[in-house]
Specification:
This protein is of the alpha/beta class. The protein is built from 17 helices and 22 strands. Helix 4 packs across helix 5. About 50% of the residues are buried. This is methylmalonate-semialdehyde dehydrogenase (CoA acylating). Keywords: NAD, Oxidoreductase.
Length: about 500
C-alpha cells in the first residue's frame, strides 16, 4: 500500500462488521476511497488481517448454531423490515454510491432498487424454501425432503454495483438460515457498509452478517477457510476462475458470475427510433461499467445505414459528475480504469476499426480531474481485434455488419462468453428462432439488458459463469441449502410383525 496522503489521514475509516459490532481494524494496510469525479479522498478502507477474517468467520459459525433454528416466519419479518429501511434511506444510499462509484444519482437509485427487489424476494422465504413429500411410496412409508442451510457462507462483490450485488447475496443466504461473511470491493465499500448497518437495524442478530475488507489475501482466506461452506462471487473472469478453482478444491459449493461480451442483433424491421435509444442507453449507461452492458451490435442488412443516427444520439449524451442534474453518464471508477479504456481505444484504431465517435479526454467543466471517457463507437469491428476480444468495461460500442440473422447467430455463438444477448425486431418468427438457436444464458427480445427479476434466476452461461446455480430466484435457494431426504415408517402398536427382510426393497 502507498503511504496515506494528508487528505486520507483526515478521512474517516471504514469499519469492519464482526459479531454485530462495527470495529476499527488493526491493519497496517489501507486503501483510499476516492471520488472518481473529483479525486477527493472520501475514506480509508482497511485490508483486514488474518486474525480479523478468522474472527468474522468464527462469529458467523457461532451465530449459525441459533440462527439455523430461527423460525422461518421470524426470518421473513426481518427482511420485511429491512426492505422498508432501504426504501426510507434510498436517497442517502444513492448519494453515497454516487460519491464513491461515480454513476449518476438516478442510476445509483436503480442500483439500490434492483437489490431491494431481492430483499423483497427474501421476505417471501416461507413460500420458497419448501421441500417435497410423497405419501405411501411403500406400505406405510412416506418420503420427504428438507431444505436445510449449509452453515457459514461468503460473498465477494465487485465495484460496479456496490449495492445491488451484495443484496443479491447475503439476504437470500441469511433468509435460508445461513450466516454470512461479505467482502465488498475495496474501491467503494461505503454504501455496502451502510446497507449492513441497516440490516442490523432491521433485526439481523449479531454474527449472522459480517463484513471484512481486503484484496487478494482476503479472497484467498475466504476460499480456503475450513468453516466456510459456500462462496458466491461476481467480478472479472480472471479472479472468478481463481476463486472457483481454489474454493472448489477446498470442498466448497461455488457460484461465479464473471466477464462478458454482450451482443445485440438489429434486424431491418426493428423500430428504428426505439431501437437506437435502447442501444445507446445499454451501451453507455454507467459509463459501460456493467457486466451486462451492451458492447457489440450486429447490424443486419439495411440497418448498417443507421450508424450516423446512432452516433448522433451517443454524442448528445451529457458527461458529468453523477451528482450533476442532467448527467447521462459519469466517470470511470479509477485513473487506472480510464487509462486502460483509452489504451484499448488506441488499439482499436491501430488494428483497423473505424472510429465513428471518439470519447477520449473529454472536457467536463468543473470536473477536469475526473476519470472521464465519453461515448466511443467503432464500426467495421472484426474478431481478433482487442476491442472485440476483451471486455472493455467502459463506454465503448463495437458495430459489426451482418448479412442476415443466421450469420449474426453464428457470430455470437462463436464468442466464448454467454452472459446476455438481445434481438431487436418486430418479427415473432425471427425472435423465436433467435431465442432457440442462440447459445447465451439470458436473452432479450427488444430488451437490451435482459437481467431477470428475482422471481427468476440470473442465468449467464459458458465462459461468463462457473457453477451450476445462479444468484437469486429458485436456483439460489438450491445453492444455499442442502437437500436432505427422509424415508419414514411409523408402526401401529397393534400391527403384526412383518418378519426379517433381507432384500433392498421396502415392503
Amino acid at each position: 500500500m502507498n503511504a496515506p496522503t494528508h487528505a486520507a489521514a483526515l478521512a474517516p475509516s471504514v469499519k469492519l462488521l464482526i459479531g454485530g459490532q462495527l470495529l476499527e481494524s488493526e491493519s497496517t494496510e489501507w486503501r483510499e476511497v476516492v471520488n472518481p469525479a473529483t479525486q477527493q479522498v472520501l475514506a480509508r478502507v482497511p485490508f483486514a488481517t488474518a486474525r480479523e477474517i478468522d474472527a468474522a468467520v468464527a462469529a458467523a459459525k457461532e451465530a449459525f448454531k441459533t440462527w439455523k433454528k430461527t423460525p422461518i416466519g421470524t426470518r421473513a419479518r426481518i427482511f420485511l423490515k429491512y426492505q422498508q429501511l432501504i426504501r426510507e434511506h434510498m436517497a442517502e444510499l444513492a448519494a453515497l454510491l454516487t460519491a464513491e462509484q461515480g454513476k449518476t444519482l438516478a442510476d445509483a437509485e436503480g442500483d439500490v432498487f434492483r437489490g431491494l427487489e431481492v430483499v423483497e424476494h427474501a421476505a417471501g422465504i416461507g413460500n420458497l424454501q419448501l421441500g417435497e413429500l410423497a405419501n405411501n411410496v411403500a406400505t406405510g412409508v412416506d418420503t420427504y425432503t428438507l431444505l436445510q442451510p449449509l452453515g457459514v457462507c461468503a460473498g465477494i462483490t465487485p465495484f460496479n454495483f456496490p449495492a445491488m450485488i451484495p443484496l443479491w447475496m447475503f439476504p437470500m443466504a441469511i433468509a435460508t438460515g445461513n450466516t454470512f461473511v461479505l467482502k465488498p470491493s475495496e474501491q467503494d465499500p461505503m454504501v455496502t457498509m451502510r446497507l449492513a448497518e441497516l440490516a442490523l437495524a432491521a433485526g439481523i442478530p449479531p454474527g449472522v452478517l459480517n463484513v471484512i475488507h481486503g484484496g487478494e489475501m482476503a479472497v484467498n482466506a475466504l476460499c480456503d477457510h475450513q468453516d466456510i461452506k459456500a462462496v458466491s462471487f461476481v467480478g472479472s473472469t480472471k479472479v472468478g476462475t481463481h476463486v472457483y478453482q481454489r474454493a472448489t478444491l477446498a470442498g466448497k459449493r461455488v457460484q461465479c458470475m464473471m466477464g462478458a461480451k454482450n451482443h445485440a442483433v438489429v434486424l431491418p424491421d426493428a423500430s428504428q427510433e426505439q431501437t437506437l435509444d435502447a442501444l445507446v442507453g445499454a451501451a453507455f449507461g454507467a459509463a459501460g461499467q456493467r457486466c451486462m452492458a451492451l458492447s457489440v451490435v450486429l447490424l443486419v442488412g439495411a440497418t448498417q445505414k443507421w450508424i450516423p443516427e446512432l452516433v448522433a444520439k451517443a454524442r448528445a449524451l451529457r458527461l458529468s459528475a453523477g451528482t450533476e442534474r442532467g448527467a447521462d453518464l459519469g466517470p470511470l471508477i479509477s485513473c487506472a480504469a480510464r487509462a486502460r479504456v483509452e489504451g484499448l481505444i488506441e488499439r482499436g484504431i491501430a488494428e483497423g476499426a473505424t472510429l465513428e465517435l471518439d470519447g477520449r479526454r473529454p472536457l467536463v467543466p468543473g470536473f477536469e480531474s475526473g476519470n472521464f471517457v465519453g461515448p466511443t463507437i467503432f464500426s467495421d469491428v472484426k474478431p481478433g481485434m482487442a476491442i472485440y476480444q476483451q471486455e472493455i468495461f467502459g463506454p465503448v460500442l463495437a458495430l459489426v455488419p451482418a448479412p442476415d440473422l443466421d450469420a449474426a447467430i453464428a457470430f455470437i455463438n462463436d464468442n466464448p462468453n454467454g452472459n446476455g444477448t438481445a434481438i431487436f425486431t418486430q418479427s415473432g418468427a425471427a425472435a423465436r428462432k433467435f431465442q432457440e438457436e442462440i447459445d447465451v444464458g439470458q436473452v432479450g427480445i427488444n430488451v437490451p439488458i435482459p437481467v431477470p427479476v428475482p422471481l427468476f434466476s440470473f442465468t449467464g452461461s459458458r465462459a461468463s459463469k462457473l457453477g451450476d446455480l445462479g444468484p437469486y430466484g429458485r436456483q439460489v435457494i438450491m445453492f444455499y441449502t442442502q437437500t436432505k431426504t427422509v424415508t419414514a415408517r411409523w408402526f401401529d402398536a397393534s400391527g403384526s410383525a412383518r418378519g426379517v427382510n433381507t432384500t433392498i426393497s421396502l415392503r
